[in-house]
Every structure is written in structure tokens, then in C-alpha cells.
UniProtKB/TrEMBL annotation:
InterPro entries: cNMP-bd_CS (IPR018488), cNMP-bd_dom (IPR000595), cNMP-bd_dom_sf (IPR018490), Env_Response_Regulators (IPR050397), RmlC-like_jellyroll (IPR014710)
Top-rank taxon: Bacteria
GO terms under cellular component: cytosol
GO MF: DNA-binding transcription factor activity
Cross-referenced Pfam families: cNMP_binding (PF00027)
Domain Cyclic nucleotide-binding: 16-118
UniProt xrefs under PROSITE patterns: CNMP_BINDING_2, CNMP_BINDING_3
Name of the featured protein: Cyclic nucleotide-binding protein
Length: 167
């Protein structure tokens, strides 16, 4: 029996799990670990090793990135149905950012081992899940490209603008 029909229904509405059968969703709801974080609690830190990702079921998280000058900047705020940490599963590199709770939050942990078990049990569902991750990463890259283009254009406008002579 599943943990809760509400959790199954919630997973059905999350893009990461798009296209997965009710049976697969019920299995994930039953086996994946739930984590609760209070405001200020860190899911992981930039530079940490990690072989897990998280799905935000309730609450709000912020994504923080350190600059070369060690200035930490908020680059995103995540809400229910968002997920994060998938890069460390796919590329096996250290965490690229810090993610911290800014409201009481409930998360579902998905480890590399969980994905491996899904791969061995149900290749079609595994493929759909990885494709959903790739789609979201592509969307995020498009957003980042647009922001970068705006930043560069604004900088060029500022430095290319003719200066008024001092009086």
C-alpha cells in the first residue's frame, strides 16, 4: 500500500515525473526518502560531492552561487514541484551551488542508486525521467543565456555610450 494517495497525486503533477505510470509513481512515493528542512537549513553546499537530487514538495528554497571574489549571490528561488541537485547525478562533479531553505520545506530525495534501481527495473520509466531532467536543464540554460545576453548588452551600452565632457 502506498504512503499516501495525496503524495502519489502530488508526484503526478511534478514535471520530473511526467509520463510515468501510476504504478511507478506509487513505487517512488513508497521508496524515496522524505526530508524536512527548517528555514536556514542547507540541503547541500557548493563544492560538496553529491550523488542525489531533491524534489521540493512543500516550502521554498534559495539557490546561492559564490563568485570568484567569494561573494554569495542568490541566483534562484525554488518552490513546490521544482527540483534541484540533478547535475551531480549526471556529471559526477562537485555541487555547483548551495541550496538553503527559506521556509519550512519538505523534500523528496532521489539518489543515484534510486535511479540505477529504476534503470534496472523499468528502462522506459528511467528514460522518461532522465529526458524530463534534460528538458528542464535545457530550459534553465536558455534562461541563463538570455540573462547573460542582457547583461552583456547593458555593459556594452554603458561602455560604448559617448561621455559628456566635464564642465
Amino acid at each position: 500500500m502506498s504512503r499516501s494517495p495525496e503524495l502519489n497525486a502530488q508526484l503526478r503533477e511534478i514535471g520530473l515525473f511526467g509520463g510515468l505510470s501510476d504504478q511507478v509513481l506509487a513505487g517512488l512515493a513508497d521508496t524515496l526518502e522524505l526530508v524536512e528542512l527548517q528555514p536556514g537549513a542547507v540541503a547541500f553546499r557548493e563544492g560538496d560531492s553529491g550523488r542525489e537530487m531533491f524534489v521540493l514538495l512543500e516550502g521554498e528554497m534559495e539557490v546561492l552561487k559564490r563568485s570568484k571574489r567569494e561573494v554569495e549571490a542568490r541566483v534562484a528561488v525554488l518552490g513546490p514541484s521544482d527540483w534541484f541537485g540533478e547535475m551531480s547525478i549526471l556529471d559526477v562533479m562537485p555541487r555547483s551551488a548551495t541550496v538553503r531553505a527559506i521556509a519550512p520545506s519538505r523534500l523528496m530525495r532521489v539518489t543515484a542508486q534510486d535511479l540505477d534501481a529504476l534503470y534496472r527495473r523499468d528502462l522506459k520509466s528511467y528514460t522518461l525521467l532522465v529526458l524530463n531532467i534534460a528538458r528542464e536543464m535545457s530550459r534553465r540554460l536558455r534562461v541563463a543565456d538570455s540573462l547573460l545576453a542582457e547583461l552583456v548588452a547593458n555593459m556594452l551600452d554603458e561602455y560604448a555610450r559617448p561621455r559628456r565632457p566635464a564642465i
